[in-house]
Amino acid sequence: MKNRVAFCNFTTFLSFALIIYILFTTYIDYFYSNNSSNSETFSIKIISLIVLSLILVSLIIFFRFYKNVYLEKQVKQRTNELQYENETLKIHAHIDPLTQVSNKKHFMERFDEEFKRAIREKQDISLIIVNIDEFKAFNDIYGREEGNECLKLVANILVNHCNRASDLISRFQGDEFYILLPNTKEPKAVANKCVQSVKSLNIPHYNSIASTVLTISIGVSSMLPVHFAQMDELILSARESLQTAKRSGRNRVS
């Protein structure tokens, strides 16, 4: 199909050039019919044919060159678009679409990497588990849309307080967030700031047994790991700390 189109374009261009040549030679025959000999007229025709051929060849070369440059530009542009789309897809594959923090899959991949690094470099590593108090009751009263807005606000607060390049915040499931803090000296101080910031939002929650406003409970666990199997111990310890915070009245860090 492409070859057929190219052939049609070429024949059209060639026909146009021949028409110009015929008109030009006809004009020469008419103009020089009474003033020049046949040899002079023939020479002028030959010269004009050569000039027209050179022009035609030059135009063909120019258009081929322009076509190649145009195609290269189009290919480069499309390649850049595909690269951008691929990078966007990679980013979106790691992000929770509602809160824009890391999703569970990406968090576990990074957790694995950071835990191994902590073992190699002999550094502490901390895990924080955050749970919104009585979130199901909040959704029952205020609706899922308001609940989603709360999740976004809580995620923003966690990101603001855990903003080092190595920190990682993830919406693990539902209203539960995991925060990974490599080489952090005071993880509970960070957790307490998160608790205070969420409460200071003053989002009404009259169906909560913890407070009349929206609050969170946090479990914290830290260790200096020496082998990889301790990663499960760190998660279990953080979960137990979260349960302790809930049993103690919620809206607190344990």
Detail the poorly predicted runs. none
User: Percent of residues in beta strands?
Assistant: 5-15%
- Give the SSE string: HHHEHHEEHEH
- In spatial order, strands of the major sheet run 2-3-1-4
Please state the structural category: alpha+beta
Regarding quaternary structure, what we see is single chain
Biggest sheet descriptor: 4 strands, antiparallel
> Total number of helical segments?
7
Distance between the termini: 72 Å
* Count of strand segments: 4
- Characterize the overall form: elongated
The share of residues in helices is 55-70%
Task: Write a structural description.
The protein is an alpha+beta fold. It has seven helices and four strands, in the order H-H-H-E-H-H-E-E-H-E-H. The chain has a four-stranded antiparallel beta sheet, sandwiched between helices. A hairpin with a 2-residue loop joins strand 2 and strand 3 (176-182). The longest helix has 57 residues, at 38-94. The two termini are 72 Å apart.
